[in-house]
Amino acid sequence: MSNVAEPNAANLRRDALIERLALVSLTGPALLLVATVMLVPVGWLFWLSFLNDAGGFSLEHYLRMLSQPSYERAFRATFEISFITTAICILLGYPLAYVLSQLPRRAANICMIAVMLPFWTSLLVRTYAWLVLLQRQGIINTWGIKLGLWDAPLALVHNLNGTLIGMVHIMLPFLVLPVYASMRAINPDYLKAAANLGASPTRAFWLVFLPLSLPGLLAGALIVFILCLGFYVTPAVLGGGKITMVANRIATDIELFFNWGAASSLGVVLFILTSMILYVASRLAKLDRLLGGGEA
Amino acid sequence: MGWLDRVATDTQITHGGRLWLYVLSGLILLFLILPTLIVIPMSFSESQYLEFPPQVWSLRWYRNYFNSTAWMQATATSFKAGILTMIVATILGTMAAYGLHTARVRFSGLIFGILLTPIIVPVILVGIGVFYVYVKIKLVNSMFGIVLAHSMLAIPIVMMVVSSALKSFDMNQELVARSLGASRVRAFFIVTLPQIRFSVVSGAILAFLTSFDEVIVSLFVSGGQNSTLTRNMFNALRDQIDPTIAAISTLVVILTSLLLAISQIFGKKTDQ
Amino acid sequence: MTRDAALPIAVRQLTKSYGTVRVLDAVDLDVHRGEFLTLLGPSGSGKTTLLMMLAGFVRPDCGSITFGEREVIRLEPHKRDVGMVFQNYALFPHMDVAENIAFPLKLRGVDRVETAKRVEQALELVKLGGYGERRIDQLSGGQRQRIALARAIVFEPRILLMDEPLSALDKQLREHMQIELRQLHERLGMTTVYVTHDQREALTMSDRIAVIDKGRIRQIDTPKTIYERPNNRFVAEFIGESTFVKVDVTSAGCTFNGTPLTLAAQPPQTGPHHLMIRPERLEILQHDPKNDVNLLPAIATAAIYQGDSVLVHASLSDGTMVSVRASASSQAPLVGEHLNLGLNAADTYLLPLEECVQ
Question: How many whole angstroms from its chain centre is CA C194?
Answer without folding.
Answer: 8
